[in-house]
Design goal:
Distance between the termini: 25 Å
Strand content: 5-15%
Number of helices: 6
Order of helices and strands: HEHEHEHEHEH
Mean pLDDT: 93
Shape: globular
Strand order of the largest sheet: 3-2-1-4-5
CATH topology: Rossmann fold
Radius of gyration: 16 Å
CATH class: Alpha Beta
Length: 189
């Protein structure tokens, strides 16, 4: 793969910020995933760095993904249980029905009176899914101008996705998903 292609794909998909670049958020939504410990650690770091706190509305969303059907509990419950281990006394709402990115954001709206009332919104997801999460939020009329995204993956991200065949395959499959969901009308450009 050519360097300019790698750079364009990276810039398009991996649109999340580094933790140091983030502000304070009065709403944080965790999109369900199978990186339970990494996601809980990200939440802990966000609290430790005063990016979110007990006054923030924090929603952890996710039912069971296809990779974790045998686990006890939903993705939201498992991530929350990992987060509780840090004893930070930060309450979270658990959305337990979402099975994909669109549903994570759509079903999270049920916990909020008015999405437009939040000054700063943070989405927490796998780093290579940031563009799709943003596009879903835009399609669902989230105030994306007040939104940032942070990725939870440490071993696979914008700096190294192109270094092995398995990672390249995952990223290229994500580009294909975005294309299919856009054609279907689930995403807006």
């Amino acid at each position: 793969m050519q360097n300019d292609t790698i750079e364009k794909i990276t810039d398009f998909l991996f649109m999340g910020k580094n933790i140091e670049e983030l502000d304070f958020y009065n709403l944080a939504i965790v999109l369900g995933n199978n990186l339970y410990k990494e996601t809980a650690e990200c939440l802990k770091d966000l609290v430790s760095l005063n990016k979110i706190d007990a006054t923030s509305t924090i929603i952890i969303s996710g039912k069971k993904g296809r990779l974790n059907k045998d686990l006890e509990g939903t993705e939201a419950e498992i991530i929350y249980q990992e987060f509780l281990k840090y004893n930070l006394n930060v309450p979270c709402l658990l959305e337990r029905e979402a099975t994909n990115t669109k549903e994570n954001l759509l079903f999270s709206l049920k916990y909020l009176e008015d999405i437009k009332s939040y000054r700063k919104i943070l989405l927490i997801c796998k780093s290579f899914l940031a563009r799709r999460a943003f596009m879903c939020a835009y399609n669902l009329d989230y105030p994306v101008e007040n939104m940032d995204i942070i990725g939870v993956e440490k071993d696979f991200g914008k700096d190294n996705w192109f270094t092995d065949a398995k990672s390249r395959k995952r990223v290229l499959a994500e580009l294909e998903r975005i294309s299919l969901y856009t054609e279907k009308g689930d995403l807006k450009l």
